[in-house]
Amino acid sequence: MDSTQSFRFFNRGPSSVARLVFFAVFSLLLLFVDARYRYLESTRSALSMLVYPIQRMASWPGLLWQQAGDFYITQNRQHNLITENDRLQQKLLLNAAQLLQLQALQAENQQLRKLLEQPFRYDFSAKLVEITHAERDVFMRRVLVNKGENDNIKVSQIVMDDVGIVGQITRVYPWMSEITLITEKNHAVPVQVLRNGLRAIVFGAGNTSELTLRYTPVSADVQKDDMLVTSGIDGLYPPGIPVAKVISVVRDSVYPFANITCLPMGGVDKHRHLLVLSNMPEQVDRPLRELKNSNATSRGMTRSKQ
Amino acid sequence: MLARDINSRSVIERPVSNFFIFASVLIALLINGLPWGGIWLLLRPDFVAVVLLYWCMHKPWRFGIGLSWTVGIFADVSDASLFGQHALAYTVLAYGGVVLNNRLQMFNLRQQAIHVLGILSLTYIVYASVHWMMSGHITWLYFLGCLTSTLLWIPLSILFQAMRQKRVENE
Questions:
Q1: Residue partners of A38: CB distance under 8 A and separation at least 6
Q2: What is the pTM (predicted TM-score) of this model?
Q3: Mutate to test the interface with B, among A4, A37, A269 (most CBs of B within 10 A)
Q4: pLDDT in tens, B25-50
Q5: B32 in any annotated domain
Q6: CA distance A16 to chain B (A)
Q7: Is B15 part of the contact surface with chain A (CB cutoff 8 Å)?
Q8: Confidence of residue B125 (pLDDT cuts 50, 70, 90)
Q9: Chain A interface includes B108 (CB < 8 A)
Q10: Three-state SS for A45?
Q11: Among A119, A212, A268, A282, which residue's beta carbon has the most beta carbons within 10 A?
């Protein structure tokens, strides 16, 4: 029995209590600094290079599984593949037609905006990224993707899929970056009800794939099945991209705000590939915008709602 | 006693190579990093915590609080959690392991598991309280991981014991 004990013939350095206190205090300090000031991002990205191989290896089983699935599909489901191909082709045609219409509208819109002396809506470009793994913290709604600083990904860029907004880049490492999904608790997106242009802010609900429309008065005109699109007011999200669909509206006169639950449009926890939007317009300085607005109102024009 | 039976075969301290310790921690980090999701993420035992606890209990002067803290920092980076969250949790865990080291050797596996449950709950309380400080709510289901980690403790310590045994017999 005693053989398992360490004899204290030699001094083994500070006692374990001293070590515990030292490291615990150091950890608490780190926690405080990281939570409050975010000074440690460079350290984090340096350490992430060491962890990267492990993370890469950890994503292999998932990739293998997907590849096996793909292989199975190509081998045994040729029929399925053909029908899928047909469907996609049809969709492409439909989209192409819509795109033509959109381009015509865009030109018209630009011309109208020029007439109104309004700033243009900018075109943005997109970059395809692949999710390497989901966040392993149950509390967080985040995913990590396979492109980072080396591919010119920057913090606060917007991430979407083919249907709608999925999230936002919150951290960038050399070879990967972290996306906070819109379902993350307290993550806010400024939106607008498509039907009537009502502005609101949609928040993540945390542990479920739901969103809530907070601070919307009981009297606000929001109905079930209303579509919410980005309003673009914050200068971060491009305007007009679908975000969520209202699934329930509960109005209790006891509370000043209505309890509105929405479902995200984008496949927030479905897809493997996502688009990161870049080349977003620079945010206009505040005084300038106010000046423009005052000019616009002085000429008797109503303020645009985008 | 059962524990004495297990330990009586090992009157001489079995050597453990640094490589074995290092590899086991690395593999635990890898398993933690597998794409777990949904309910499996809730049920997933914290492999790194269990492995660290094993080494802190069995080899406290080789694998102590300092190394556990370092592993915690790496876990923080790979989980993209706040810096210091895992580090703090693993520091507490390692201290529990080191302090209970002598006592735990006297218990059999079942009695050990009860102690391990206590230490692991402390670890999970650290996680949960850090999260609570940041966001103001606690997900109680999160503590399921604490139970599964304790269940993992039993097969894991049998496995490690067996692997260490073999190593000696080969030499």
A1: none
A2: 0.66
A3: A4
A4: 999 988 888 877 667 777 888 899 99
A5: no
A6: 7
A7: no
A8: very high
A9: no
A10: helix
A11: A268
